[in-house]
Amino acid sequence: MALTTIWFALSAVVMIFVSLLPIPFVWQLLIFVLIATVLLIFTRPFAIKKLNAGKKPTNSDALIGRSVRLEQEITPLKKGTVTINGIKWNANTADCSPLAADTLCTITAIAGSTVIVEPQK
Hints:
Layout: H1 4-18, H2 25-51, E1 67-69, E2 80-84, E3 87-93, E4 104-111, E5 114-119
Parallel strand pairs: 3-5
Antiparallel strand pairs: 1-4, 2-3, 4-5
Helix pairs in contact: 1-2
């Protein structure tokens, strides 16, 4: 729903001129809703595509997909650890399955201060 108000603002600008015409308020309201809906449906996908074109992952999102070596084993009762850029992170698997230490893994997600990993095949 991001940027929805822009289309209503554009509709309001058009309605400045429509309000000068001798049209009943109900029709003006319907015209406003129609213009806003048409703008929203037909131009929003284009605008979102353009605004998200150069989006790059930052901070912890940039870690997803990286390969790491598991330093401590993961057991169903204990999280393991990995070091990423000199910072130790807790590591776990999505289904809490055990993994041995020194296993090469890929980061699939981040949950709080824990990276979710899966073994590389």
